[in-house]
Amino acid sequence: MFVNTLSLATKFKKGFSTILFLLLVCTVFATKIKNRDSLLSLPMFSSDQLIKIEIKGDLLGLINDIDQERSYHDCTLKVQNLEKEKWVHLNVKIKTRGNFRLRKQNCNFPPLRFKIPVSIAKGTVFEGQNRLKYVSHCQSQIKNYDQHTIEEYLIYKMYNVITDHSYRVRLTQTTFIETNTNDTLVKYGFFLEDKDDVATRNGKTILNFKNIKQYDVDRKSMVMLSLFQLMIGNADWDVTRLHNIDVISVDKHSIPVAVPYDFDWSGIINHSYFTLSPKIDPDAKYKRQYKGMQWSREELENAFMEFKELRNIFLEKITTCQYLNPENRNKLVSYIDEFYHLINSKKDIRNEILRKSSKIPSGT
Question: What pTM was computed for the model?
Answer without folding.
Answer: 0.90
